[in-house]
Design a protein that fits this description.
Blueprint: H1 15-20, H2 35-91, E1 95-100, E2 102-103, E3 107-124, E4 130-135, E5 142-143, E6 148-153, H3 155-197, H4 203-242, E7 245-247, E8 252-257, E9 264-265, E10 277-292, H5 293-296, E11 304-309, E12 312-329, E13 334-342, E14 353-361, E15 367-370, E16 374-377, E17 380-386, E18 392-396, E19 398-402, E20 406-411, E21 418-421, E22 434-437
Parallel strand pairs: 1-22
Antiparallel strand pairs: 1-21, 2-15, 3-10, 3-14, 4-6, 4-9, 5-8, 6-7, 8-10, 10-13, 11-12, 11-14, 12-13, 15-20, 16-17, 17-18, 17-21, 19-20
Helix pairs in contact: 3-4
Length: 441
C-alpha cells in the first residue's frame, strides 16, 4: 500500500489535465467561478484563436492575388495585340474607297409639270331667241359630230322666214313686170323713131319715149336688187331656223350643262346670253408645259416626250412636242410648250396636273463621278485620282450638273479613271494607297 508524504510536492499533471480540471471555487457563494481561474483559462485559449484568424487572412490574400492576376493577364494580352495591330496599321497602306469615272448617258431627261387640256373645247350658246323645248344630253354623255343636243322653240323666226320668202316671190314678180315694161318702152321708142324720121312725131315725144326706156330699165335693176335683198333675208331666217336645233360641233363629251326644258335663250346678247353646253374632245390631250430658260433652246417641234401622273409614275404615255410659243414669258422666263398625247381609253383627264419628261440629245457627253469625290480647296474644285501604282494625285476639274449622288465633270477627268471617294485632307500627293471599290446599292 502506497502512502503519500504530506511534505512532498503534488505530482505534476499534463496541460490537458490542467485544462480539463474543473475550476476551483472560492469560499463565496456556491457555483460562482473564481475570476483568477477564468483569466488563466482565456490566456490558454487565445493563441489558438490567433492562429485561425491568421489562416483566414492568408486565404483571403491568396484569393485576391489570384483575382488580380486573372484580371491583369487578359488586359496585358489585349494591350500586346493592340500594340501589334497599331504597329501593323502604321506600316500598312491607307485603305481608301474608290470608284470608276464613267461617261454619262448620250441623252438627258428633264421632268417638268404640265396642265392637261382637251384638243378641242367648245362653249355652245344659243343663236336663236326662244325657249328650250327639248334637252337630249347631259354631262358625261359621249356625242358624235352633228348629233342633236337640244331644240329651241322660236315661232317668230319661222314667221319671219315665211314673210321673207313671200317678199322674195313678190320681188321676182316685180322684176318680171319691170322687164316687160322695158320691152314695151323699147318697142315704142323704136316705132316712134321711125315716125319721127318722116316728120309724123315731134322731137319732144321722141325724148319722152327715150326717158321712159331709161326709167323702165332702172326699175328692172331695182327689182333685181330687191330680189337679192329678199334672198339674203330668206337665207338669214333659214339659218336662224336651223339654229333652233343645237348640234355637237365635233366628237366629244359633254362636260357642262346649264339649261333645262323651258329656259329662255337670248341670242346675240353678251349680257344675258346663257351658256348651254360645253363639249371637249379628249381622245387627244394637249399638255401645256412652261419650260425654264435653261432648257428652252433644246425644245424642238417633233421631239418625243413622256407623260405620266405623279401618283402613278409607271403608267407612262408617249407624246410629241407639237408647237411652242417661240418666245419666253418675260415675267417667268419660261417657254410655253405644247405636247400632244393620244388618249383613246380616257386614261387621262382634262384638267389633270401631269408630269412631262423631255429627252434631250447631248452634244458633248460629260464624265460622271460620285459627288463625294469632289474636293473644294481655295474655291477650286479638285478630284483625287489614282495611277497604275495606286499613287494619289489631284486634278482640277470643271463641274457640270449635279444629280445628287453623281456630278458631271466637263474637263479634268477621263472616262475609266479611278477616283477617290471621301478622300479627306490626310492624303498628300504621291501617297500609295490600298483601293477598296465603292459598294453598289
Amino acid at each position: 500500500m502506497n502512502t503519500v508524504n504530506p511534505n512532498s510536492s503534488p505530482p505534476e499533471t499534463s496541460s490537458h489535465e490542467a485544462i480539463e480540471k474543473p475550476a476551483e471555487t472560492s469560499p463565496g457563494p456556491k457555483g460562482t467561478p473564481d475570476p483568477r481561474t477564468a483569466a488563466d483559462h482565456d490566456l490558454r485559449v487565445r493563441p489558438w484563436r490567433n492562429v485561425w484568424v491568421a489562416a483566414i487572412a492568408l486565404v483571403i490574400v491568396a484569393v485576391l492575388a489570384a483575382a488580380a492576376v486573372t484580371a491583369t493577364l487578359p488586359r496585358l494580352a489585349n494591350e500586346r495585340a493592340l500594340n501589334a495591330a497599331a504597329a501593323q496599321v502604321s506600316t500598312a497602306r491607307p485603305r481608301v474607297t474608290v470608284a470608276q469615272a464613267k461617261k454619262g448617258a448620250p441623252t438627258s431627261d428633264r421632268v417638268l409639270p404640265g396642265n392637261a387640256l382637251p384638243l378641242d373645247d367648245a362653249m355652245i350658246f344659243a343663236r336663236t331667241t326662244g325657249y328650250i323645248s327639248q334637252r337630249l344630253v347631259d354631262i358625261g354623255d359621249r356625242v358624235k359630230a352633228e348629233q342633236l343636243l337640244a331644240v329651241i322653240s322660236a315661232p317668230q323666226v319661222d314667221d319671219q322666214l315665211r314673210q321673207s320668202e313671200a317678199n322674195l316671190v313678190q320681188s321676182k314678180a316685180n322684176l318680171d313686170f319691170a322687164q316687160a315694161s322695158l320691152q314695151l318702152a323699147n318697142a315704142i321708142l323704136a316705132r316712134e323713131s321711125k315716125a319721127a324720121a318722116g316728120g309724123a312725131i315731134t322731137q319732144e315725144q321722141l325724148d319722152q319715149d327715150r326717158a321712159s326706156v331709161a326709167t323702165t330699165s332702172a326699175q328692172v335693176e331695182v327689182a333685181k336688187a330687191t330680189i337679192q335683198v329678199n334672198t339674203a333675208l330668206v337665207q338669214q331666217f333659214t339659218d336662224l331656223q336651223r339654229f333652233e336645233k343645237i348640234t355637237a360641233p365635233f366628237d366629244g363629251v359633254i362636260t357642262a350643262r346649264h339649261v333645262d326644258v323651258g329656259d329662255l335663250m337670248t341670242a346675240d346678247s353678251p349680257g344675258t346670253s346663257k351658256l348651254m353646253f360645253e363639249i371637249q374632245r379628249t381622245d387627244t390631250l394637249r399638255v401645256h408645259v412652261n419650260v425654264p430658260q435653261i432648257f428652252a433652246t433644246k425644245i424642238k417641234v417633233g421631239e418625243r416626250a413622256v407623260v405620266f401622273r405623279r401618283e402613278a409614275p409607271d403608267e407612262q404615255y408617249s407624246g410629241t412636242v407639237t408647237r411652242t410659243a417661240d418666245a419666253l414669258d418675260p415675267a417667268t422666263r419660261t417657254l410655253l410648250t405644247e405636247v400632244q398625247v393620244s388618249n383613246p381609253k380616257d386614261a387621262l383627264r382634262s384638267g389633270m396636273f401631269l408630269q412631262v419628261r423631255f429627252l434631250f440629245e447631248r452634244a458633248d457627253v460629260a464624265v460622271m463621278v460620285p459627288s463625294a469625290a469632289v474636293l473644294v480647296r481655295d474655291n477650286v474644285s479638285q478630284v483625287a485620282v489614282l495611277d497604275n501604282q495606286h499613287r494619289v494625285s489631284y486634278q482640277k476639274v470643271e463641274l457640270g450638273r449635279d444629280f445628287g449622288q453623281e456630278i458631271e465633270i466637263r474637263s479634268g477627268v477621263r472616262d475609266g479613271q479611278t477616283v477617290l471617294v471621301y478622300p479627306g485632307d490626310q492624303l498628300p500627293v504621291g501617297t500609295v494607297v490600298d483601293p477598296v471599290p465603292l459598294p453598289t446599292i
